[in-house]
Specification:
The structure is a homodimer.
Chain A (H helix, E strand, L loop, with lengths): L7 H7 L1 H13 L2 H5 L4 E2 H8 L6 H10 L3 E4 L2 E4 L1 H6 L9 H15 L2 H7 L12 H5 L3 H25 L7 E5 L5 H9 L4 E6 L4 H10 L6 E5 L12 E5 L7 H14 L5 E6 L10 H13 L8 H11 L3 E8 L2 E7 L1
Parallel strand pairs in A: 4-5, 4-7, 5-6, 7-8
Antiparallel strand pairs in A: 1-3, 2-3, 8-10, 9-10
Helix pairs in contact in A: 2-7, 10-11
C-alpha cells in the first residue's frame, strides 16, 4: 500500500475524542491534583479517586501513553507540565477551561452537524438556558470561571508584556479584562504604566482582589460597564483579547469603532486571538475555535490577521501589523 | 518558560475532540463521497451538503488544516487517503466505523467518568437498549455494519495473509467472521487453502454474498452458531479478530479453551487485536480501546501480547508468539 494512502491518520483523528475525553475525565476527577501531593500506585490512586477496579489501570496507563502521566515501576506521578498546569491548588492551574469543556463543550459539540446545517448555536441557549447569565449571578462560580480565563490568557499576557513597544505609552486598559491577567503582567513588567480593566460590574470585586494580590491597586483600577451599551474608557493602549471572535461582523465593527473613538491620536488597539492564518490552511486550532463560536454564540466567528487589519483600517486606524505571541495566539495592532 | 513545561500539548489533547467531531460530522454529511465526484468550490459544496452559510467555510478549511481535504485556489478536493477510504461508493470505504462513532460512541464516551466510577457500560444498554440485538434483526443495517467491520479489518487481513506460515496448513476458519474479510484475503493469497467463517445465523447471507463476489464460494463456506452456546468448528487454523477484547477474563478463557479443543494437534489459533504493549506505556490506542470496551461491554477489556500468551498456555497451547501486523494491530499465535 502506498505510504501516502493510509487509513491510520483518518482513524486516529476520527477516534481522537477517546484520548481527549480521557484527559477531561482525569481533570474532572482531580487526578493531577491528587498526584501533585506525591506518587501513588494504581490501587492507592484508584481508591482516593473513588474509581471502580475494572478499568482504573487502563485509564491511568492510557494517560501515561498520552504523555500526561509518568510511571516509575508501579508508581504514577505527574509530568512536569501536568503538575504545573493541572494541579488545582497551584496558581498556574489552567484546568478550568478543561473542566468547562468536559461539562459543556464536549456534549454541545455532539450537535455540530445540526449547527452546520442551521447556523444556530448549540449550547444551553438552544433550550432556553443562559450559561453566562447564570454564571454572572453566582460570585463563586464567576470567580472560578474568570480564574480559568486567566489560566488560558497567561501565555499571551507574558508575550504582550514582552513584545509590544510599551515605552511609547503611559496608560493601558484591557476591554473585557476578567481578573486582569493581561494588565497585571504588563504592569509588572513596565513600571511606568498605569491603567486597568473594563468589564461587567459583577467582575469588579474579583478584578480588585486579583490586582491587589500583586500589589498593583494604586496603578490598575476597574471600570464597570457593558461594551455595547456604554462608552469604552480611554487610554493610550486598549486591549481586546478573545473578545471580538464572540461577535458577528457588524458587532465586531461596532467594538472596533468604539475602541478607535476612545483612543487618543497615536494610541494603539491590541486585538489578540487564536488568529487563523491568512491562507486559512495551517492553523487548525483557529479554524476549530471558529466552529466553537458556532456552538457557543449566535453570530461569532474567528478570523485572520488580514481580516482584522482590514476592519481596523475601515474604522480609521492608520496603520496595522500582525505579530505572533505564543502557541496559537497572535495579536493584531492598530495605530490611530 | 522551560520548553518541557508547556501548556500547549495539554490544551491540544483536551480540545482534540473538536477536530475529531469535525471529521465525524464530515463523514456523516457525506462530504468525501461528494468530493469523490470532483472538486467543488465552497458555495457548491455548501449547497450540495445542505449547510448554512455561517460556518461552512470554517468547516471546510478546518478539514484542510487537519489534512483531510486539499484546496487548490477555491476548489476543495479529497486527499488521496480520504478519497480511497471515505467515499461511500468505493469498496475501500471505512467510514462505517466513523459513522457509528459519530452516532453512538461520541455521546456514550461523554459518560466516561461515570463508567470509571461504577465499572458499568455506558451505551444504549444502560437505559435498556440493545444495539446489537436490534442490529442483528435488521438485515440492511446488519449488512452495513458488517461491511464497516470489513473496512477496519482489511489492513490486518492483508498482513495475516502475508505473515502467517500458511504453507504448513490446509484449512482455516475465522471465528466471528462477519463478511469474511480475513478468510477471503487469506484464500485469495493462498490457493491451497479451504475453510470459511463462523458467525451468528443472521450473518450467513451477507457472508455468502461477499465470498461469492470474490469467486471463492467453492473454497469458503459459512458455519452458523453462537460461540458460547455451540461448539466451535474445527480447522487447522482458527482466527479470532477483535473478539476476545469484548469479553471478561472468564469468557476469554472459555473461548480460548474452545478454540484449543477444536484444533487438531499442531493446529494454530491466531488472535489479532489492537494489542497493548507489554509495558503498557506506548500504545495509547490499545489502552483507549480497552476504555471503549468499558463503554460498550459489561466486562470486556484489551490486553497485552504477554497476557494473551499466558492465557493460551494456561488452556494448553504448547507454543505462542506475538507479531505486529499493521498500524495498531498485532497477532498472538498459539500452537497446539
Amino acid at each position: 500500500m502506498n505510504a501516502d494512502v493510509n487509513p491510520e491518520p483518518i482513524m486516529q483523528l476520527g477516534l481522537a475524542f477517546w484520548g481527549s475525553k480521557t484527559l477531561l475525565s482525569a481533570v474532572e476527577l482531580g487526578l493531577f491534583t491528587e498526584l501533585a501531593k506525591g506518587p501513588r500506585d494504581a490501587d492507592e490512586l484508584r481508591s482516593v479517586l473513588g474509581l471502580h477496579e475494572r478499568s482504573a489501570r487502563d485509564f491511568f496507563d492510557a494517560l501515561v501513553a498520552l504523555g500526561m502521566l509518568d510511571r516509575d515501576g508501579e508508581q504514577y506521578r505527574n509530568t512536569p507540565s501536568t503538575d504545573l498546569f493541572l494541579d488545582r491548588t497551584k496558581p498556574s492551574y489552567l484546568g478550568g477551561m478543561l473542566e468547562m469543556s468536559n461539562a459543556r463543550l464536549y456534549p454541545f459539540w455532539g450537535s455540530l452537524t445540526e449547527g452546520l446545517r442551521t447556523g444556530q448555536l448549540q449550547n444551553e441557549a438552544k433550550t432556553g438556558g443562559d450559561f453566562f447569565g447564570v454564571l454572572y449571578q453566582d460570585p463563586d462560580r464567576l470567580s472560578q470561571f474568570l480564574h480559568a480565563m486567566t489560566g488560558i490568557s497567561m501565555g499571551a499576557a507574558h508575550a504582550i508584556a514582552e513584545k509590544f513597544p510599551w515605552h511609547r505609552y503611559k496608560t493601558v486598559i484591557d476591554i473585557g479584562a476578567a481578573e486582569g491577567c493581561v494588565p497585571v503582567q504588563v504592569a509588572l513588567r513596565h513600571d511606568h504604566l498605569t491603567g486597568g480593566g473594563f468589564d461587567l460590574p459583577a467582575v469588579e470585586p474579583i478584578f480588585s482582589k486579583y490586582v491587589e494580590a500583586f500589589g498593583l491597586s494604586s496603578r490598575l483600577s476597574f471600570h464597570a460597564g457593558d461594551f455595547f451599551a456604554d462608552e469604552i474608557p480611554s487610554a493610550d493602549v486598549l486591549i481586546m483579547g478573545h473578545i471580538l471572535h464572540d461577535w458577528a461582523l457588524d458587532e465586531k465593527m461596532t467594538l472596533l469603532g468604539k475602541a478607535y473613538a476612545a483612543l487618543p491620536s497615536d494610541g494603539s488597539l491590541i486585538v489578540y486571538e487564536t488568529l487563523i492564518d491568512d491562507d486559512r490552511r495551517q492553523n487548525a486550532f483557529g479554524l476549530l475555535m471558529s466552529l466553537n463560536m458556532l456552538i457557543e454564540t449566535p453570530g461569532g466567528f474567528d478570523y485572520t490577521g488580514a481580516d482584522c487589519s482590514s476592519w481596523m483600517r475601515k474604522v480609521g486606524f492608520r496603520e496595522t501589523y500582525v505579530e505572533h505571541l505564543v502557541g496559537p495566539d497572535s495579536m493584531v495592532v492598530g495605530i490611530k
